[in-house]
UniProtKB/TrEMBL annotation:
GO cellular component labels: cytoplasm
Domain PPIase FKBP-type: 7-101
Membrane-traversing stretches: none
Catalytic reactions on record: [protein]-peptidylproline (omega=180) = [protein]-peptidylproline (omega=0)
Main subcellular location: cytoplasm
Single Gene Ontology BP annotation: protein refolding
InterPro entries recorded: PPIase_dom_sf, PPIase_FKBP_dom
Subcellular location: Cytoplasm
Keyword Glycosyltransferase tagged: no
Organism: Desulfolithobacter dissulfuricans
Name of the protein this chain belongs to: Peptidyl-prolyl cis-trans isomerase
Length: 146
């Protein structure tokens, strides 16, 4: 059988980990993922790593933050008055909240991770929780459908 090419549909298993070794995503056991190269189901940098692989082969690729969830922007970390949460929720570090932000004259709900809480303020991060982190994928090609 010929190796993976641009127009192929492939079946893979994968595990995605952070530098610490923490697993952040993986195909469920005995449930491989089927996708067409270029369909956007996985990050393009991971798709490219599949090219040239043959069934049964495993490849490990580390993708840069820019090719995954983007860089971590310091300007997306905000300190808010704790009073805006009174009577609604008791924020705690690690919580992910849906907060209202104005963008282009419209109010939108945006997820934010609570970083810290003190008596008067709450510091939140509007970046994706995985922003700024390289991700290592270990991918095994199960099969190719030409």
């Amino acid at each position: 059988m010929s190796p993976v090419a641009l127009t192929d549909t492939v079946t893979i298993t994968y595990k995605a980990t952070l530098k610490s070794g923490e697993v952040i995503d993986a195909t469920p056991e005995n449930k491989p993922l089927t996708l067409s190269i270029g369909d956007g189901k996985i990050f393009p940098a991971v798709e490219v790593s599949l090219l040239g692989m043959e069934p049964g082969q495993t490849r490990t690729v580390t993708i840069a933050p820019e090719d995954a969830y983007g860089p971590h922007y310091k300007e997306l970390v905000h300190t808010l008055p704790r009073s805006i949460f009174e009577g609604k929720i008791e924020p705690k570090p690690g919580m992910i909240l849906s907060l209202a932000l104005e963008k282009d004259g419209r109010e939108e709900q945006v997820p934010a991770t609570v970083l810290s809480v003190n008596n008067d303020t709450v510091t939140v991060d509007y970046n994706h929780p995985l922003a700024g982190k390289p991700i290592t994928y270990t991918v095994t090609l199960v099969g190719i459908n030409k």
